[in-house]
Amino acid sequence: MIDLAVANDQETFERMGEPLAERGIRVRHVPVRERVVPLGADAPWDPDEYDVGFVYPGRLMEGGVADALLEVPWLNDHETVLTSRNKAEVLARLERADLPVPRSVYVSNDVSEAELAAVFDRFEPPVVVKPNSTTRGVGVAKAHDLDSFLGICDYLSLVHDYRATGDQSFLVQEYLPNATDYRVMVLEGEYVGAVERRLPDEAVSEGQWKHNVHRGADATGVDLPDAWRDLAESVATELEIPFLGVDLLETDDRLVVNETNARPTIDEETKYDPDFYDRLAAAIRTAAQG
Description:
alpha+beta; Rossmann fold; ATP binding; ATP-grasp_RimK-type; nucleotide-binding; metal ion binding; ligase
């Protein structure tokens, strides 16, 4: 039996436990955040207690402590999580590889109001303003005119005055109206399933536009065309991330890679390919072997 350390005990942890146990992998929760962790001989984890980690913890400081104490390889390690979290880096790398992405400008605070106005003038309003390294849609806003755009940027500058936030940058992107949002899962370079994320009609009528499941969107399993699967696989290959969620946006005439997630939530088994857990178990065993 392989012992798998999983830092997050939310949906993914609950869903993967039984399917992986049936394949010889015991899923165990390793809480790394919001707790006290002795660092000496009475540390909470024995290095011989686990064989492999699932994905590196999202809070990188806590992750560093867990990594040092657990002494395990990870399916998605520290570097892959850092790469995916840097939205601007991902977009730049994908565009250099001739993969389709939204028109974007990267802003590293602080910059002048004149520079921000010049950025806004690059786009047809509205524009999307997106903190560079947040997840789950946190802090993402839409600006319909220059005044509201500058107001959002002022708020980000205020937040960035607290240097402990670390990343003092954000993206300005074109807004793709009425785009259909897909989360595509890629495991070791191969497509393993996808969901369409759609807001309830009531939420749309109230003006909501972000399709994050954590903000109320529904995820429905879908069967994507081969070309779209190939695009998601190309993204994972370019970024060299073993287990990756690739977010695609589809409009009437375009398909673009919006974001990636190296700590993706696993949805219900029925929304993925039938051999998804066989392949996930094989990937975990490969990671465990070093």
